[in-house]
Amino acid sequence: MTPQEFxxxxxxxxxxxxxxxxxxxxxxxxxxxxxxxxxxxxxxxxTPEWAYRTLDGDHDIxxxxxxxxxxxxxxxxxxxxxxxxxxxDWTANDHIKSVIDVxxxxxxxxxxxxxxxxxxxxxxxxxxxxxxxxxxVLHYMQPHAPFLSRDGGPKLEQIQEGIKxxxxxxASQGPLGRIxxxxxxxxxxxxxxxxxxxxxxxxxxTGTTGLLSDGTRETGLKLHEENLRIALEEIATLVEDLxxxxxxxxxxxxxxxxxxxxxxxxxTHIPALIDVPWLELD
Length: 282
Hints:
- It is a single chain.
- This protein is an alpha/beta fold.
- Helices cover 40% and strands 19% of the residues.
- The chain has one domain (2-281): 3-Layer(aba) Sandwich (Alkaline Phosphatase, subunit A).
- The strands form two sheets. The chain has an eight-stranded mixed beta sheet. Strands 8-9 form a two-stranded antiparallel ribbon.
- The protein is globular, with a radius of gyration of 18 Å.
C-alpha cells in the first residue's frame, strides 16, 4: 500500500479527519465531495503516534487543531498525563510554525468536543495568518467520538480538561497524585490488553441506544458514519472557498472489534487503524 506521505505530498490545504476509517469514508464521501480517492497507510494508529512520526522537522504550516494533543502549549506528548500514555518527546510548536488551539477557543461544553463549524470559524478568523504560512492544515475532531447525534461522551472531555490542568499538576497533586502517575501507565497497559475493557470505553461513548438490538460493532459503525457525514457536510461548503490543491485525509482509523481491538491505541498497526483515505479534490 502507498504510504500516507503527508508532508511529502503536494497540497496547499489538508483536511484531517480524526479517527476516520477508510471503508466508511469510501462509502459516503462522493455524496459530498468530488475527487480522486486512494487508500494510504498512516504512520500511526493514534493521534500522538501519528503526530510524532509524521510532523517532524520544521514546517511553515498554519495548523488549526481541534485535537488537544496537537496544541500550542509547549507540553511534550510524554508529559500529557491524560490520555496520551506514550513516551514521545514531541511538542507541536517545536515543529509547526503556527498552531491554533481550536480545541480551546471553539469547544462546545454541551457536545464535549469541537463541532465541525468551529474549525471553519477559526479558519476564517485567522485569514491573515493563513496567507502568511506556506500551507494550512484543518484538523477536525470528527468522526472521532463523542458522537454528535447523541449527547456527548466522556473521553475527549477528559483529555481536554486534563490538558488544561496540566500546568498545575506538579504543584497540586501531592503524594496521592504522584502515586497515581506511577500506577496509571501499568493500569492502562492492562486495560488496553483487555477486549472487554476496550469495548466498555466504546459503550460509554455510544450510550445504550442500539446496543441491545444491533450490538456494539453495528452501533459504533453507525454513529461513526453519522459523525463523518456531519463533518463532510460542513467541509463541502468550506472547500468552495479554498484556493490551491486541497486534500482530505485522516490521522488514523478506528477499530470496531477487528483482531480484538476497539477504538484506537498507540502502536497497534492493524488495517482498521492505519488504513486512511487520501482524497485529492477536483
